[in-house]
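FORM 7B: Structural annotation worksheet

SECTION A. Query
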Amino acid sequence: MLQLSRLRSFLEQPRHIVITTHHKPDGDAMGSSLGLYNYLIQQGHHVTVITPTDYPDFLSWMPGNGDVLIYTDNVEKSVELVAAAELIFCLDFNTLSRINQFGEIVRASTAQKVMIDHHLEPEDFDDYRHWDINACATAQLVYDFIVNQLHRKELINKDVATCLYTGIMTDSASFKLPNTTAAVHRIVAELIDSGAVNWAIHDLVYSTMSEDRLRFTGYCISSKLEVLRDFNTSLIVVNKKELEHYNVETGDTEGIVNYGLGIEGIKLTAFIVERKDRVKLSLRSKGEFPANEICKKYFNGGGHRNAAGGESSASLEEVVAQFKSILPAYKKLLIQ
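SECTION B. Predicted structure
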């Protein structure tokens, strides 16, 4: 592992740097990436954020977004930038399979690699690691990296603060999850003091959507929500035809999984959606219920205890049947 003192010294001179994050980036992925980007450019570094895929339009307002490169749309340029990079920051993921085909390009690079992440069981591909599974968001760790490891708190300007606030807000479900500690709130207060306008950020992320997205969300709640009272579980299942009917775009399904958890007594909720080549699952839970265990054990995924995801190459009907068949083994946890 690269020693922090060496990394700190390395960053004292302008460097060619690539920042990347997981496929279909969410608020924490983009918030942490653009937060770090806006920090590094203040020091004269040549920095490019490269995402492996596209991401939701409701995140495109963040400072620095105009300079983001999407790998699938810019393969040749992305390869050139990685080849020229001296340092690659890998944010909000800890295994290179999470960045799809771009992962092997990053793996083959001779650049030093820095992982900043809060997910379980990291792959050993990095040279320096700032990792804590107890952090509520990677954006929290980027803040800690800048302030407490690089000792450059004075460079947390409005742009950096805005992006990091977005990452923490979204990955903590608007500060509702159990790992939103007092320390997290103190960081958020510092970000607001540095220029993050909390109410405006919330409005841009949660209150700006297309008519199609709003109608799709309403359809999921009114017509697709199923409640399994014997297991204190709810689920919403959506097929490809329904996605097409509502013109669902990247990010339009974001947050739908959370609605089922708002039902009184529900401890586990699932959003199961049929994509082009596989079925995706998002799970949310309350308390000590291990949503990540289900995703890891049965659906080639993982995540956090209360927020996890997985996928399957089986049919939508088979995945739904499998999910329901798993519940009896967890009944004691679900009904206690």
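SECTION C. Observations
The first helix runs from residue 4 to 10. The chain has two domains: 4-206, 211-335.

SECTION D. Sign-off
Analyst initials: ____
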